[in-house]
Design goal:
Elements (H helix, E strand, L loop, with lengths): L28 E3 L2 E2 L16 E5 L6 H13 L4 E4 L10 H11 L7 H7 L9 H13 L2 H8 L4 E4 L2 E4 L15 H8 L6 E4 L6 E5 L3 E5 L2 E3 L5 E5 L13 E7 L4 E7 L3 H10 L4 H9 L2
Parallel strand pairs: 2-10, 3-4, 6-7, 7-11
Antiparallel strand pairs: 1-13, 3-12, 5-6, 8-9, 8-11, 10-13, 12-13
Helix pairs in contact: 3-4, 3-5, 7-8
The protein binds zinc ion.
Length: about 290
């Protein structure tokens, strides 16, 4: 396990940038190609089969991205939702995003920004931009909302899989998994076949069979004999060079995890950031997907 980077925004894995042509407009969805074992037929989406679970996180107070993701998940026939934490921080709609997720009544795990927004501790060791946004976020949330964030659990088991914001080995240390070596420490503590996480804002799949391998976020078939540690990417502040909102669908009957990317009304999100007098770079980085 490498130590967490000094700058919490630091993880920037090499990915070809795909800047938005013209932000806004109707959502355009692309779906990564499905890699299936021989003899397995790809199910078509949407499907009416039960237990299709939308797994979404790192929303970071981006209401336009969140609403786009939730609408897409409904269209895709998802019958359950799980939130991977970091509902708040960075962007301008912390209270609205929190209430939207809270009203869903779905399982939620705590992210580091949720913890920082709920606390009263000093943020001076954090990078200045994230700290400025968190100070602002603290003022925007009610005591009741901060208590709700504070009470979120670090790790949850849902069905037969696990969810955690960062890693299972030391969830409250907020370590970043940016490569397969980092993922090895997690696998030592992963007792379910599948575990979902977030935190780096970079969708990625780590697979442990004889050794640990790493693949980009293409759709993945869950196979007997392997373990999967799957980063579902970020709804509200992707950092893989692709600005579009990201989440994953766990299609349990078909044993598939499918990643979704969606255009959303980024111009409105950016305008709200500037109107709130949050640091301008928070608006700029959304368009860069960094
Ligand atoms: Zn985050």
């Amino acid at each position: 396990m490498t130590p967490p980077p000094q700058d919490p925004d630091a993880p920037q894995p090499p990915q070809p940038p795909k800047p938005p042509a013209i932000p806004g407009g109707a959502p355009v969805v692309t779906q990564a190609p499905v890699v299936l074992p021989e003899g397995v037929e790809a199910p078509s989406l949407p499907s009416s089969s039960p237990r299709r679970i939308a797994i979404f996180g790192d929303i970071h107070a981006n209401l336009e991205a969140l609403e786009t993701v939730l609408a897409d998940a409904e269209e895709q026939g998802c019958d359950d939702f799980i939130c991977m934490g970091d509902i708040v921080g960075y962007n301008a709609d912390p209270a609205a995003c929190l209430e939207r997720v809270r009203a869903m009544g779905c399982p939620v795990v705590k992210g580091n920004h949720d913890e920082d927004a709920a606390g009263t501790h000093s943020l001076e060791t954090m990078n200045p931009v994230a700290a400025a946004a968190l100070e602002w976020t603290r003022r925007m949330l009610s005591e009741d909302q901060r208590t709700w964030l504070r009470r979120l659990r670090m790790v949850r088991q849902v069905e037969d899989f696990t969810v955690v914001h960062s890693t299972l080995d030391q969830p409250s240390n907020w370590n970043y998994v940016t490569n397969r070596f980092d993922a090895m420490s997690n696998f030592s503590y992963q007792f379910t076949q599948v575990c979902f996480h977030g935190h780096t804002h970079v969708p990625r799949v780590y697979i442990k069979k004889d050794k640990v391998t790493e693949t980009p976020a293409e759709s993945v078939a869950i196979e007997e004999g392997s373990k999967y540690f799957i980063n579902v990417g970020s709804v509200g502040q992707p950092r893989d060079g692709d600005w579009r909102a990201c989440y994953a669908i766990y299609d349990m009957p078909n044993e598939l995890v499918v990643f979704r990317r969606l255009e959303y009304d980024i111009e409105t999100t950016q305008r709200k950031i500037l109107d709130a007098e949050l640091p301008r770079m928070l608006a700029d980085r959304l368009a860069d997907g960094r």
